[in-house]
Amino acid sequence: MRMMFGRRLAAPASGQGAAELGDLPEWNLADLYSGMEAPELKRDIARAASDAVAFEARWKGTLAAEAERGAAGRLGEALTAYEALEELIGRIVSYAGLIYAGNTADPQRAKLYGDVQEKMTDASAHLLFFALELNLIDDAVIELRLRPTRPSPTTARGCSTSGRTSPTSSRIGSSSCSMKSRSPDAAPGTACSTRR
Are 113 and 183 in contact (CB under 8 A)? Predict the structure, then answer.
C-alpha cells in the first residue's frame, strides 16, 4: 500500500511494490461537479436519461420532413437540442472518467465510473437515430434550411456570436469539417471571426 494525499492505495496489479511516489497531483474538477456525491451530478444524470428518451420520442423519423418544410421546419431546433444533450452527456462522462483515472484503485470511483458509463450508454442509445437520419438529408438542403435569413454584422455565415461553428459545418458522425463559410479573419481551426 502507498499513501496519496493521506489515503492508502493498493499496490500496482503487477504484484511488485511501487517506489514511494509521494503526494501526486489530482485534477481539480470543481468546474464540472463539486464532488462524486454532488446533487447537480445526480440531477444531470437523471436529466440526461429523461431528455434522451424525450428527444427520441419527439424527433425520431421526422428530420427529413422537417428539412423539407423549409423555413417553417424545425430542423435547427432538433440540432440545438441534440447538441445540448451531447454536451451534457459529455460533461458527465468526462467527470466520471477523470475522477476514476485519478485513482483507479478506489472502489467508490470505480463504481461511479461504471454506473455513469452504463447510464450514459443507455441515454446515448436513444440518440443513435439522429446521426443516421441527418446523414440521409442532402447537405445542400440542410445548409439552405439552417441559413440565417439576416445574418448580423458581427457574425459570419454559419457562425454564432460565441465563435463556435454552426452545427452544419461538420456532419454528425464525421470528422471532416467544411471551411466554405470560413471568415477571412477567422482564427485557425474555426469558421468564425473572433472580432467583436
Answer: no
Task: Return the pLDDT at 70.
Answer: 82
- Tell whether 76 and 167 lie within a shared domain: no
If asked whether residues 81 and 104 sit together in one domain, one would say: yes
- Whether 57 and 103 share a structural domain: yes
pLDDT above 50 (res 145):
yes
**CA pair distance 55, 74, nearest whole angstrom:** 13
CB under 8 A, 24+ apart: contacts of 155-158: 155/192, 155/193, 156/181, 156/182, 156/183, 156/186, 156/191, 156/192, 156/193, 157/181, 158/191, 158/192
* Cα dist from 144 to 57, 70, 73, 158, 192, whole Å: 26, 8, 11, 11, 19
Indicate the number of domains in the chain: 2
What gap in Å lies between CA 193 and CA 158, rounded to an integer? 11
Examine the fold and report which residue of 146, 164, 181 is the final residue of a domain before the chain moves on. Answer: 146
**Which pTM value belongs to this model?**
0.65
Whether residue 7 is contained in a domain is answered as no
Determine which of 67-76, 113-122, 163-172 has the lowest per-residue pLDDT on average: 163-172
